[in-house]
Write a structure and sequence with these properties.
With 239 residues, this protein is of the alpha+beta class. Helices cover 51% and strands 16% of the residues. The chain has a 6-stranded antiparallel sheet. β3 and β4 form a beta hairpin. The longest helix is centred in the C-terminal third of the chain and has 32 residues. Keywords: TPR repeat.
């Protein structure tokens, strides 16, 4: 079951929504009331533009948990979808959206705040979703942008672990997840694992934390989409 959950998360990270639907359905065969799987399934349906199936799944979630915030919010949202918005939803699935927006993948991804960050004058120029680069040093890992500007360093314990893994042949990519005052939050993803470390995860986090985080990230993503749609609707009304 754990492997299926990991594969479901991986499919979402890769935006393979058809596969995500199939895997979450398999998970639900063993536990038809698995709320996490149902939330992932409903979200995948909506990303595929299968609005009726998404609504049906959100209804089931609300039967199990009538106060589920994600289901309440998105069921109402889907009820108001026009035909044009459904078409737009289908088009969105083909766009290349950075994977940091969606879900964590156990053992392969990590969300972390940098330390010793650059001054606010540099932070103010950063964009969420920008690709950044890991620069391993002797005892730390610096994070620099595409112009090689220093942004901050990873916490010591994580840096120590990744330095060893990088020396062994692992490779990683990182994106800016969020920029706050005196703080940069990164999403780091393992992109290659050397054969010698095939059974050693890059990051150690209990699966229950990933499940909780996956729900939180879906919620944040949907809220961001709502804000974008509200802005677009406002622009249309002004025109």
């Amino acid at each position: 079951m754990l492997l299926l959950v990991q594969n479901a998360i991986k499919s979402a990270l890769n935006q393979n929504w058809a596969e995500a639907i199939a895997i979450n359905k398999l998970i639900l065969k063993d536990g038809k009331n698995d709320l996490e799987a149902l939330i992932r399934l409903a979200y995948a349906y909506s990303k595929m533009g299968e609005i009726n199936q998404a609504k049906k799944t959100y209804k089931k979630i609300l039967q199990l948990d009538q106060y589920n915030h994600i289901a309440l919010k998105n069921f109402d949202k889907l009820k108001s979808y026009s035909k044009n918005k459904i078409i737009q939803s289908k088009k969105l699935t083909s766009q290349n959206i950075s994977p940091y927006i969606y879900l964590e993948e156990p053992g392969k991804t990590k969300i972390v705040s940098l330390i010793h960050v650059s001054p606010q004058s540099i932070l103010s120029k950063l964009d969420t979703g920008s690709l950044v680069f890991l620069h391993p040093k002797k005892h730390t890992i610096e994070i620099r942008d595409q112009s090689n500007v220093y942004l901050g360093v990873l916490p010591d314990d994580l840096a120590f672990r990744l330095i060893r893994l990088i020396k062994s042949g692992n490779q990683y990519e990182a994106w800016i997840k969020n920029v706050e005052k005196n703080n940069i939050i990164l999403f780091i993803k393992e992109t290659k694992r050397c054969k010698r470390l095939s059974n050693q995860p890059s990051f150690i986090t209990p699966i229950r934390e990933y499940n909780a985080t996956s729900t939180k990230i879906i919620k944040q993503t949907l809220e961001n989409e709502d804000e974008k749609e509200e802005s677009e609707d406002q622009e249309e009304s002004e025109e």
